[in-house]
What we know:
Radius of gyration: 16 Å
Strand content: over 45%
Number of helices: 2
Helix content: 25-40%
Shape: globular
Number of strands: 8
Order of helices and strands: EEEEEEEEHH
Amino acid sequence: MSLTVRVIAPDRTVWDAPAQEVILPSTTGQLGILPGHAPLLSALDTGVLRVRSDKEWLSIAVLGGFAEVENNEVTVLVNAAERGDKIDLEEARAAFSQADERLKSVKEDDRQGKFQATQAYRRARARLQAAGGLVSV
């Protein structure tokens, strides 16, 4: 038995294929989904969604959204997504480093700047992790 997994962003379908397992970056932590999982609706955080298909793991950087699990179908609607195997690792590493420096340089009383820098940092970290880069926190 397998799952049908669809990851859909506003501009395209990022993944639409059978899988044996999915790990979702929910807002309350990671959720593992296997065939036969109970129906579920969950908000997703910015992070890395992992799909196991044909004994291989694929990482997808997602930028928030929702996931619905029902009848061995996992439908993931996200604001944006990018497959890890399509991300240039060195570019992702450089973007993460820039986002990290930006976050560190924001003044403590600049609430909007802090929020924007934090969001950019989280996006850059998810892209780097999906591309296979290690992030030390």
